[in-house]
């Protein structure tokens, strides 16, 4: 089963779609990884356990899903984001959780704000909700889609109507539909759910614990900033978090403008019990080292 597009990044920057294609093709195999053997991971102190950590599958195209399972277990956590049903058996074999499931979406640009897509989306999400629930998972990603000339309030009314067609089934099966907040300034032009206020209002209109937002810190820093205050005000609607450095979407260390230890303390202090997933594109020569360092920074 193919994994649908998660959007493009301008210029020559790697996209989620490109990364996933390379993962399937195995075209970026690195030395030992290409041979099916990963280098031994240095032992580290156990994680504190105040936040649950994950990593987006698409950011590690040079590793097979089995190798990425080994990597995350070696670092000390056990969850991978944006994984579809075809890879769930591998995750289960390695004791790794699918913290954000995908595969039901039509793409970033064709989402619930477009009423012309509702019949397709309802059919796909109804089927996928059952797959997620039967596998023992909880979160399933969804998207608003593009404005396509709509007034934001019109798009919100369409999204509310479309989502309510599947939410009863999601509630029955214990699955949470999570709409991602993305920036429309740099990476995803015309995407509608590009400000937290729009997403929070949609959550209030829907009024279900089985619908919420994926608060992508990278995207919202680009669109509106005020990250820690926004988390404090609206954390009840944030079911999941993503990280990446701004600008550039690379490592989250001290070469970019966000201070992730403080942000993660703010998330921790809300009592959040979901997952914080690393979604940066490693630019350093050692991507596993970059992931290890990101987990260390966020382990507050």
TrEMBL record:
GO terms for molecular function: isomerase activity. Gene3D superfamilies: Divalent-metal-dependent TIM barrel enzymes (3.20.20.150). Residues 119-294 form the Xylose isomerase-like TIM barrel domain. PROSITE patterns: TAT. SUPFAM superfamilies: Xylose isomerase-like. Keywords: Isomerase. It holds the Pfam family AP_endonuc_2. This is TIM barrel protein.
